[in-house]
Structure formats: C-alpha cells, structure tokens
Amino acid sequence: MNRKVLTDKHGRMINYLRLSVTDRCNFRCYYCMPEEGIDFASGKDLLSFSEMLFLCQVFCNLGVSKIRITGGEPFARAGVMPFLSDLSSVPGLDQITATTNGTFSTKYISQLKKAGIRKINVSIDSLDPARFFMITRRDAFDSVYSCIFLLLREGFDVKLNCVVSATKNTDDIIPFIELTRKYPLRVRFLEEMPFNGSGNFDALNWTYKDIYEYIAGIYPEVETTGSDPNGTSVNYRIPGFKGSFGIIPSFSRTFCGTCNRIRLSATGELRTCLYGPPACNLRDVLRVGASAHDIERLIEHAVSGRLKNGFEAENSNRHTLHNSMSVLGG
Fold first, then answer.
1. Rounded distance, CA 73 to CA 326, Å?
2. Which of 275, 260, 278 is closest to 313 using CA atoms?
3. Spatial separation of the C-alpha atoms in residues 203 and 195, rounded to whole Å
4. pLDDT tens string for the chain (330 positions)?
5. b vs e for 27-45, b when ≥16 Cβ sit within 10 Å of the residue's Cβ?
6. What's the CA gap between 93 and 163, in Å, rounded?
7. pTM greater than the 0.90 cutoff
8. What architecture does CATH give domain 6-328?
C-alpha cells in the first residue's frame, strides 16, 4: 500500500518531525534561556509519553519517516527510554535520532542501541572548560567531553553542534576542526538565533560566511562534500582528516526552499517553521477526544498554510519570536 505524503503549498514534502519531550534542561546556555531559567511547563501541561506515541503514529501515517528527539535536554525527563523503545516500533518510522547536551545520555547507551538509535548530536560550544562554563553557566565540561568519546567508542554516529558568537567562542572554531583530524566526528557550526528567552538579540554578529572565511583562511585546502538535499548544513572536509564539518546558516536561512521538517513542542504546539507561531496545539484537541483522523486533518491544514521561508514566518510572529529555544525544541 502506498504511504501518504505530507506536502506544503510550495511543493515541499514533509517527512521529518522534531519532537521535544521536555522544556527542562540542566544547562543555562546564554543563547537558549536566561540564567535564572524560564517558567517551565507543569507536568500536566506536558504531553504524556502515551500521547506523544499516539501523535507520532499519526505523523508517520502521514509520511513522516524520521523523528529527532529534542528538548530542553531530552534525557532529563524520566521515562524517556521506555518511550523511545515503543517509538522504535512505530510502522513507517525509519530513523530516530536525538540531540543532547551529553550529561545524561551515557547511562542510556545500551538502551539507545537496543532501540536502534545510533545517531546522536551533542551540543557543545567550546573545547575550553572556562569558556564552556561561561556559555552554559554550568561546570560540566568533563562529563560532556567524555560522553562524546564514549559514544564514538560504542559505534555511534556523532555530530557536535556549536553555536558561534563573535563575542564568545570564535577561538574554538579551529580546535573543533582539529578534533576532526583524528576522530570521525562531524562538527556543525551554527549561526546564533534570537530564541534566548530574553528578547535581547539585535543582530547576527558572525555569519555563515564569516565562519567559512575564517576556516578557509587557516585551511585553504578545504573542500566541499556532498550535502543532504533537505539538510540545513553546507558540508566540508579537510583532506586527510577523519571527520568533517558543516556550517548551518540558521539565522540567514538559506535552506528554507528545501526544508522538510515540522516541530512538535513538549506542550503540543505544532510549528511548521521554527521562526513562525504555532499553527495549532495537538495536545488540546487530543484531550477533548479528537480521533487520529481529526488530528491528521489538523496537521494537513497546518502544513497547507506553511509560509515560503523563515523570513515570512518571522514577520508573522513578532510577539513570540524571542521565546526560549528550550520551549520551541530547536
């Protein structure tokens, strides 16, 4: 039987769901939330794992084949591993990946393997312990760094996500590149975005072009590698290095034309663009008795109204643009 295909009005097929399982995190990264934290959702406002599983089944019935588990810090939520085990059995779901800060995930390695989850993104913005502390406001560098190499030893496909700021961590760019000399890591440098929960974001201070020019000035032999046609990063390698790196224009948004993803927050908000407002709340309709068919129609309607790019979405979302990334799910 042919699977359904979820397509927006611009002809983009949607087959990738980013699912936030919690808005809570044990870090306070400056680009994600204020030092004092945010007003986290209460337990009753979070989607239960059974509700998430049901919604994921609906999404997969509509053609979603990849789900990335995000947060907050996803492994900070109790019960996440039984949920992931159940999720791995959903028909039509080909791949589950996860993004973590690396402080909890090591104790779940065997369970992740059992659930078939072998691709892990670790968020780490500095290889210098002092800068790491300045950025995260937490003294956890050693545990995160050791997690990276434990995952590698256990055969995981590991990406490192580094948000670049001219005032914080440009001195870390080359050390990250050097890390790929000996290790099969994929480092991804991201432009900073305005979702820090504070509303203090005047302008981008280090663009994807700045990042590339800085790297190419040190490694003139850098070469482009093949990129996922629906991916957000432009990928590169240094000849002779075991790993590679990519640059994500997350604020410049040059990849919107091929975007294949939608987002579901831990409280049920469905977003068709990170920069846009929620299209609807699936938790609310589910809790008043909506059927799978009803929810499919809601998702299809939301996708049908998807705007052309993140700039149009941003223009429609002035009131909530500066929400914490922990709330949005990344």
1. 8
2. 275
3. 12
4. 467 899 999 999 999 999 999 999 999 999 998 888 888 999 999 999 999 999 999 999 999 999 999 999 999 999 999 999 999 999 999 999 999 999 988 889 999 999 999 999 999 999 999 999 999 999 999 999 999 999 999 999 999 999 999 999 999 999 999 999 999 999 999 999 988 877 777 678 899 999 999 999 999 999 999 878 888 999 999 999 999 999 999 999 999 999 999 999 999 999 999 999 999 999 999 999 999 999 999 999 999 999 999 999 989 886 666 688 888 877
5. bbbbbbbeeeebebbeeee
6. 29
7. yes
8. Alpha-Beta Barrel (3.20)
Q: What does the alpha-carbon distance between residue 191 and residue 250 come to, in Å, rounded to a whole number?
A: 5
| CB neighbour list of residue 266: distance below 8 Å, 6 or more residues apart | 20, 21, 22, 23, 41, 46, 47, 71, 72, 329
The answer to whether 208 touches 191, Cβ cutoff 8 Å, is yes
Smallest Cα–Cα separation from 232: which of 266, 197, 204, 208? Answer: 208
List the structure tokens of 24: 């809570």
